Amino acid sequence: MESTTEEARRIINSAVELFTEQRQISQETQYGFSWPGSWNSIGADTDAEYVKVKKNFRVTQTVEQILRQMLSSATSAMEKLKGDFNTMTNKRVLHTLPDEILVIILEHCCGRRSGLNYEAISKFLLVSRHFRDIVLGIPSVWCHLPQLHLERAERYASRATMPEIEMTIRGILYSSERETRRVPGMYNLAVSISSRIQTLTLTLSKSDLPHLETLLQTCSSMNLPFLEDFDLSCSDVGHQCRSICSNWDMPSLRKLGIWNVLPVLASSVLSQIKACTVAANWGKQVEDIESLGTSEVVEFLVSLTSVEDLRVDVHLLAEYQGDDSENISMGSVKKLTLCLQNLESTQTQVVMGIIKFPSILAFNIELGLPDIVALDEALEAVSSSWVFEESVESITHFQLSLSTENGDSLNEPFEVINDWCARFEGLRSITVESKREKGHGLLSFASSIDAVRVFSGDEPMPEGSISGIPGLWNTTKQRNVASFSSDLLEIGGGFDEEEILKYFCKGFLLATYFKGTQLRESAAP
Asked: What global pTM score does this model have?
């Protein structure tokens, strides 16, 4: 007598054989399994019938158990084969992609805007000869030269064949033999690849004084035909570095940024600059050797005869004593940003009290105040001169940025700003923002982050690592801006709730609650 398991296996084999026969004689794609007829017919309720049903029940249980085991085994095999199949397919698809598509993929993976991913670049070079050839041929991967590794920068420069190189040379960061080799080496590299540089940033400080003369001689004359953006930052060595770029040929220069230095530039270069940032004198006194005089600053600004976007972040330490104080004008400026980092800087003469800007359309003020109650005083000080009054007639967009948060009263500051802006007859937009990265609190720029850790691998920690955190954070953080229609704000305190919702929901069908009042369903105009 066969066991229950043996009978279950026999039934499964019979069903499979019948399934095979059906496939051979029929063109249908779906077939059913035939099980013993005794499973579906039950006779009279007798003891003999009970024994028969009991046996059939146990056999069907065994059949189900065997089939489940087979299904589980087949599923495991299928999952393994699926993984192998996908891997093999992806390899074949990747190798069949056109090189143009691979360039886009690899360029995205290697990074660009937020900084190059040097680890990713190294890994892609090792995938295959094909990948290596493609990566070596992507200009944007090699055009952003590493700042702190001379050998790597030289290697990248040798692979950057297009005139799109972005180069930053930072001065000596700490005392070491490697640093004393890196800085002169980077300047020599800049001279050798000058015809391919598009963006150049130089930073110099007192640490560079021992070899400053050598650096100035190295780059005393450079041909930079494709240089579009040049930044020069000096810390306590501004006067010594003024002539660093005096003999440079820069026919394409359009954007200039200078910090604590007024470089000597040919008039042909100054006349072609369209955007300029000038920052100086913060934390300095009149008697400081490295402070820039008011007349020097004004003379340099006026020499920018074609600049359209001007950012002035200068604390004028003394009154302007020039001969033509009533006739100084910069008619090319369309956008002016005036930065006043503290209340003291508003009490002395400001650039808009010396130079007239008759053509500005956008006017931005960035104020750093000890308290919001000083806002009225600061704005009045900025606008107290007749020169200022002659510069505001053309303004259509105004933006005010504050470095402190509002106090207990939210209305008073906005009332002050509103009254102050009343003189801008052609104003079309006003933007008021709070500069979180300069507000109170050590990590105010970092939103909900409680701690920031800076690490430096095997190398000593460079100077300024901590102070650079807010600026680095600011390049990637998101900002939220709320916009309101001036028509909506004119509704005032007696507004109608449904009318406000119509302004916010134009063109949409709305049925909602507003301050606890249910509004009827209606189409907003």
From this structure: 0.65
